[in-house]
Amino acid sequence: MTSDAPRTDTPFRSEPSARDTAPQFVLPLVVRIERAAPPTRTDALEAAARAVLVILSDERSVGDGEWAQAMRDWQDARIRKVVRRARGAEWRRAEALDGIKVTTGSAEVRVFPPVPLDGWPKDLARLQVSGTDLDDPEPPPAADPSAPVMWLNPDLGMTAGKTMAQAGHGAQLAWWELSDAERKEWREAGFPLSVRTADPERWPALTTGGLPVVRDAGFTEIPPSDTVVSEGPRTGDFLPGLARL
User: Fold this and answer.
1) CA distance 12 to 73
2) Chain-centre distance of CA 56, in angstroms?
3) Rg of the chain over CA atoms, in angstroms?
4) Which residues lie below 8 Å from residue 43, measured CB to CB, with a gap of 6+?
5) pLDDT truncated to tens, each residue of the chain (245 aa)?
6) Residue 197: which of 142, 134, 124, 127 has the closest Cα?
7) Is 185 exposed, middle or buried (0-12, 13-18, 19+ CB in 10 A)?
């Protein structure tokens, strides 16, 4: 199955499927967290979501591109993303590897083509998954109503690293809903989006209203849960195709 196939068999559900028998791959993301100047949590979440979109749309990831087979293999199985942290020399080594850096506000995230679960490059495998707790010094502004929003479950206490991976899942679901023309428009606009925590009163409606929902299988940090809902713009002035999400 390619990335353009119908998503009735979504890899973001916990029910067993044929995807579980396919070779399993993971999309590595590395966030730069320097001791003296860590990024804000919201910037890191949005950088991770954009990083997923950037690699999905990169010319190396499609057709006969050098990453295309790895991207197809990854999307044919369970969609796994793992976020690790780096600083100083660790970050410089990560920057030297084949990948793409995405900067959003105070956050720098580097995304790499998928690798087998047990086949991480050594300079990435040595990086820590823990220690990605980040904060927002001030509450983030309201989500931009003209761009997609990845709404986070307000009842889950996930680390920033775990939440970055979930935000990336939500962005990927939004990407799959679009036509080629709509994807091109979003990419050329720089992938505007927001990642915000949903109001508790609104969360049930978001998860039952027909919007794309990410359900975590519950292997790390949290029990099986709906984690992210992808919602398109409300105005229809930008990327009108996303209004059907």
Assistant:
1) 16
2) 11
3) 17
4) 104, 105, 106, 107
5) 334 433 444 555 555 555 666 778 999 999 999 999 999 999 999 999 999 999 999 999 999 999 999 999 999 888 899 999 999 999 999 999 999 999 999 999 999 999 998 889 999 999 998 877 899 999 999 998 889 999 999 999 899 999 999 999 999 999 988 889 889 999 999 999 999 999 999 999 999 988 899 988 777 888 888 999 999 864 333 344 443 33
6) 142
7) middle
